[in-house]
Each structure stands twice: as C-alpha cells, then as structure tokens.
Amino acid sequence: MVDSLLKFGTFIPLCNQLSASPSSSPRSLFMNSLNIHHSPTAAATTSNQPSLLVFSGGTAFNGVVEELKKLTTSVAHVLPVSDDGGSTAEIVRVLGGPAVGDIRSRCLRLSDESTSEALAVRTLLGFRLPLDARQAKLEWYSIVEGEHPLWKDVSKPYRETIRAFLAYFQNQILRRTNESFSFSNGSIGNFFFAGARIFFQSLDAAIFLFSRVSQIPTESLVLPVISTNDRLTLGCELWDGMIIRGQNEISHPTSGSFQLIDKVNSSALPSRIKRVFYMSSEGSNLLHEVFPPVNPSVLEQLRNVDCIIYGMGSLFTSICPSLVLLGVGEIISSRSCAKVLLLNGTYDRETSGFSASCFVTAITDALNRTYGHLNNSLKNNPSQYINTIFVPKDGQIPVDIEILAAQGIVHVVHVESVQDPKVGIVYEPTSLIQALADLLIGSTNTQS
C-alpha cells in the first residue's frame, strides 16, 4: 500500500502553493506534484482487456461492478450530474455546483479493498452520518478532527490528505453564514468530493484525486457526462404537456429532504415522459432550458470502446440525461460494435406499463433528440443504437419480440435473475457478466 501512495504527503505544501498562485491551474499543479500524467485514452488502449462504456446511474448498476472487474477493468463509467436527492441535495443547496453522489457511489464500488488500509479508506469514504441532526454533527466533528475510530487503520499520508479536504469542505460551509447546513445522513465521501471539487475548481480533478485515494484501477474511468462546476437541474416534459423540475421529483419524490427514498412504490406520473432536458439553476437563465456540452472524454471513449452498454436503472433520469447531449447519438450510430440494452427487471415510476420496445423507443428518441430543437435532431433507426437486449428471467417487463424485430433488434439474451428484497427482480451478477463475455467473444469472432 505504501508504494502506491502517489506522494500524497506532498499535498499540504501544494495547498500553500495553490493559494499563493491563483493564476495557475490547480489541476495541472496537483498532477505535476504527483508526477502523474492522466490519459483516459492511453489507459483504455494499453490494455488487452475488452473495453466497455457503460451509461448508468449511481445505484442499479453498482450491484454488478464487482463481478464486472473479473471480466475487465477497462471500463468507462458515464454518470449524470443531476441527482438532487439525499445529502447531495444539501451540498448543492448550500455550496452549489454539480451533484456528485452518483459519481462518488461508483468510485467507491470500484475502489480497492485488498489490504486493511484500503478497506479502511473505503469504509471511511463510504460512511454515512446518523439521521439525527445533533448526533450527525457531533460525529462529523469527530471525523474531521481525526478522532473518530474510522481513522484507525488509515496511515498518516492518507489521513492528512483526506482530512485536508474534509476540513476545506467544513471551511466552505462555515463561510456561508446565511445558510444552515444539515449533516443529517451525510456521506463522508460526498463531503470529501465536494471539498476537492471546490478547492481545484474542477470536477475532473476531484474525480482524479478520489480515484487515487481510493485506488481505483487506472484503466477504470469514472466520467461525468457533463464536466462542469455549475449547478444543473434535470427537467422532463410529459405527454400531457406538464413540466416537472428536478430529478428527485421526476423519479421518486419525497415529502422531506431526508426522507428515505422508495424507488419502487412511488406514485404514478400523470402521464408518460416525452423527453428529459437540462435547466439552469443559477444566473440569468434560472429554470430555463440550457444545452450544456458533453464531456469530451465521453465522446473520445465512445469512439474507441469494444462495447457500449445502456445499464439498468431509472431510464429517464439515470440513462437518458447522458444520451440527449449533442454528439452522443452521432458517434454511437456510427459504431459497428456491440450495443447492449440491459432491460430492467421491474417497473418504476418512470416506466409503468412499458414493454421492452418502449425502452428502445425512449433511448432512440433521446439519442436522436427527437423532441428537442429540430435543428439538432437525428433520424437514426433504433438498430443503429441497440443491437442486443439482455433480459432478466422472470422480470416484469414484457418482451414484445415482433415489435423489437420491426425496430431491427432480433438478438435477445435471457439472463438468470435473483429477487432483491428492496427493488425486486435483478440480474444475477455472475450470469450477467458471463453473458456479456460470451457476447464480446462472439462479436470479436464475427469481426475477425
């Protein structure tokens, strides 16, 4: 573990250097101090493993991440930055910026746990404070002051690095004298992430730091679909014309900021979702539709990976926000690689009454930007975006084979499933990754 500390002991002097040199790039100074040159393309192409790009949210796909590592670690995980629930919402409310909860969640799933210290770091960054506000604040102070038992197996270089950003986060909270921050149910990883993002004024640099602290394999990339320091709100338009603002309100509305989320039993939407789009939460365009550019690293990965996967999860609030951005549909439709839809095993508030072909239509409309500004729309067929569908056995979503065939999709693979007590039918991880391995072998043989 000591050999992989990446000179984090140099961080405290670096803080002083950055404070004294505001005109310098924090990200470049930080990476130079570590003597590391981070290149997503190089990481993906120097490996003999199959390379994948996965569009997903922060929860549903997490269950298969550990098993996926056995097939390949050369995976670009593309995640939205519009989550506005839980402790993420409190950070965004007080400090602004993009939501980092889904990114933090995926980073933790990818992090190392092979040594006692690696496991201790993962446990610390994955820790949640109590729901009781008073107890949460007391425990937070114990952590940020370095006195909490969670620090027991964390060595001094890691401890100093992590505490520096937690303290910086605390300092930013204290500076907002007109806002009262609630630590209730707060994620230590989210606080660390927010501190790093604000310090470096770069979401990419914060992900880079988090990835190194938690020892994510260098060929595994966690990419925000939009690389921004701005606060963005997700909006959706229903077929009855109604507009809903906020990912949480669309997907699983709650009556309180810290109410535990129930994604399965949320009330039905008044009508089906027609499209999702981005809205500004700041400045002169407050709550107007905006068109942020896609993270260039996402487009770069899409051009080179062996397989593109639309992960299971919330269709319109986890998957589609990454698909509606300019350039994504253009590149995916041009690729001849495997393009796999992992069909959900259960209905949720967003997909009530859907069949498999409805999922395909929603993804196609998002990538074609069918209901956005007409000047930016595409006319590609569903089969240009999806050529294989994985279906969990005993799942709720009906597979309408004839309509799928009319959409140009004939390759349907049924995969073993298990019953999850919280969300219902989900893929059995080993079976899912084996099916994916078989598909990639078949795809390679066909291309050769």
TrEMBL record:
Protein name per the record: Maternal effect embryo arrest 18
InterPro entries with a match to the protein in the record: CofD, CofD-like_dom_sf
GO MF, one annotated term: LPPG:FO 2-phospho-L-lactate transferase activity
PANTHER family associated with the record: MATERNAL EFFECT EMBRYO ARREST 18 (PTHR31240)
SUPFAM superfamilies: CofD-like
